[in-house]
Structure formats: C-alpha cells, structure tokens
UniProtKB/TrEMBL annotation:
The keyword ATP-binding applies. The gene is pstB. Pfam families: ABC_tran (PF00005). GO terms for biological process: phosphate ion transmembrane transport. GO terms for cellular component: membrane. Residues 38-279 form the ABC transporter domain. Keywords: ATP-binding, Nucleotide-binding, Translocase, Transport. This is Phosphate ABC transporter ATP-binding protein. NCBIfam families: 3a0107s01c2. GO terms for molecular function: ATP binding; ATP hydrolysis activity; phosphate transmembrane transporter activity.
Length: 293
C-alpha cells in the first residue's frame, strides 16, 4: 500500500516529512534526503590577509530552507555569498575549498558567474528597489535576458508579483515608483524581482532585519510558500525566525585559532529541531539559550 508521507510541519509547511529531529519520516522510518543542491567542503575565505571563515563543510538540500545563524562577524554572509559567487565582486576576497552545485564545481574556470547568479538569486538585507516603476523593477532581469512580447512580459511580471504575495497590493499602481511602497512591500518587490527570472535557489541575507514585525511575518510566510518551489538559504540574526522557517540550521561562531587569529567557523549543522532542542555542541547551546552572542 502506498503511504502518503507528506505532513504539515510545525513550521506550517506541507512537504515531505524530511526533517524530523532524528531524520525519520512521519512513520518513524528512515527516509532519503532530498537531492543535494550545494555540497560545500572545506571552504576557506580570506579578505586580503584577513581569514574570515575556515573549514566550512555543509550540504544544502532541494526545496528546503537552510538558515545560517551566529554572532556578528562569524562569516555567515561570507559563506552565503560563496554560494552564488558574489564574493568574486568583493575586492581582495579569495575563496578556496569546494562548492559543488548539483555536483558541478561552481568555481570551475568554464562556469559563467553571471549565469550562476541568474540561477542562484540573492535578496539583500536592506530592500533595494531600482529607481524605476514597480513594473520595471520586476521586468528588469527579464529585459536583460532578451526581447519578449509585451504580453509575455506582463504575464511574467504578474506571476512574479503574485509569487511574492504583492500582486493584490500593487496591481493598480504598477507604473508608480518602487520607492513609493512601504519597507515590507519593497522587500517583497525585491523578492519578486529575484524570482521573476525563475532562479533555482534564493539566497537571503537578513531579509527582514530592516522590517517591522508585521512585515517580517509576511516575508516569513512568503519564504515558507516559496520553499515549495525554490531552495532557500537565509542568513538571520533572529533565532526565532530560523526556528520558525528553516528545515536545517548551521550555527557559526568566531573564535581564535592556535595562532591567536580570529576567524569564523561552522560549529554545528543539523536539522533545525535538533539544533534548537538538543544541540550537540555546548557553544550552540550557549548561543541559542542567549548565554552568549
Ligand atoms: N568586504 C570585506 N572586506 C574585508 N573584510 C570583510 C569583508 N566582508 C566581511 N569581512 C570580514 O569577514 C568576517 C566575516 O564577515 P561576515 O559579514 O561574513 O560575517 P557575518 O557573520 O555575516 O556578520 P554580520 O552578522 O555582522 O553581518 C568579519 O571579520 C568581517 O569584518
């Protein structure tokens, strides 16, 4: 008899029962992991002579939300930027180790970083609409891809704004400036802009840190919805947010090495329920219980 293993999780998202704390499914059977999207191994990042983060190894799985948490300066954003080669654009940044994307080396010489960033989109901390209309903000990446009939462009803009849970609020003012929207709406506009080109992955660097609690709740709901379609990796300072939305959580910290040089490193990576209920490392426990950081 076929058994439906789809459950609604504590985070309210309907998905395969992949991420219970012990890795079992709804019936307590071990289950296969969703496909691996990123396989990061032994990642080191330096900025000039500054070692930002070292020895990071983790895997990100398809259509899951993976949260990167930890105190300021431990390298969360640095690691996030390695996942779509944004660090290529940071002067002095040097990345070593391996980042495989669906098994392919993301840093191989033949890989086009522009194509990487099309497939792996990024949403930033501060909403950053372009000084253009709402419509043109969303259409921007589509226009860069090449000419399309107006009707197709209209459809794709509507699809992206609907996907970003913003269509109903803006459908009658698409020609108005993106700056005329509230902060939370601007962030959803930036999410619409990112998803308009139909990426496979969304990287989000503290996407709610500039938003009030109501706008934050809307963006969190949106993330849960988007995770039905996209793989999401989010950097957040907000531990409740990581606990609410993510399937897996990576805890980073910054500490001195044997030479007294401070750098970030990954302490623990596991399913979110486990990180927040029964972490393996004392440093994780101290951080999530608020004793440190
Ligand atoms: N462009 C840069 N040039 C030089 N050093 C940098 C650069 N970006 C980050 N760093 C350094 O790398 C280390 C990690 O920074 P990163 O921003 O990745 O940490 P983070 O955990 O995301 O911090 P926060 O939570 O404060 O955003 C820090 O010591 C930081 O000062």
């Amino acid at each position: 008899m076929a058994v439906d293993l789809t459950v609604t999780t504590a985070r309210g998202r309907t998905k395969p029962a992949s991420v219970t704390a012990d890795g079992s499914d709804a019936l307590g059977e071990p289950r296969p992991l969703p496909p691996t999207v990123f396989d990061v191994s032994d990642l080191f990042v330096t900025y000039g002579s500054h070692r930002a983060v070292r020895e990071v190894s983790l895997t990100v799985h398809e259509r899951e939300i993976t949260a990167l948490i930890g105190p300021s300066g431990c390298g969360k954003s640095t690691v996030l930027r390695c996942l779509n080669r944004m660090n290529d654009q940071v002067p002095g940044a040097r990345v070593t180790g391996k980042v495989a994307y669906y098994g392919e080396d993301l840093y191989a010489p033949q890989v086009d970083p522009i194509e990487v960033r099309r497939r792996i989109g990024m949403v930033f901390q501060k909403p950053n609409p372009f000084p253009k209309s709402i419509y043109e903000n969303v259409a921007y990446g589509l226009r860069v891809e090449g000419r399309r009939p107006k009707s197709e462009l209209d459809d794709r803009v509507e699809e992206a704004l609907t996907g970003a849970a913003l269509w109903d609020e803006v459908k009658d003012k698409l020609k108005e400036s993106g700056f005329a929207l509230s902060g939370g709406q601007q962030q959803r506009l930036c999410i619409a802009r990112a998803i308009a080109v139909r990426p496979e992955v969304l990287l989000m660097d503290e996407p709610c840190s500039a938003l009030d609690p109501i706008a934050t709740a809307k963006v969190e709901d949106l993330m849960l919805k988007l995770a039905d379609e996209f793989t999401i990796v989010i950097v957040t300072h907000n531990m409740q947010q990581a606990a609410r939305v993510s399937d897996r959580t990576a805890f980073f910290t910054a500490e001195n090495d044997s030479e007294g040089v401070r750098h970030g490193r990954l302490v623990e990576y596991d399913v979110t329920d486990k990180i927040f209920s029964n972490p393996a490392d004392r440093r994780t426990e101290d951080y999530i219980s608020g004793r440190f950081g």
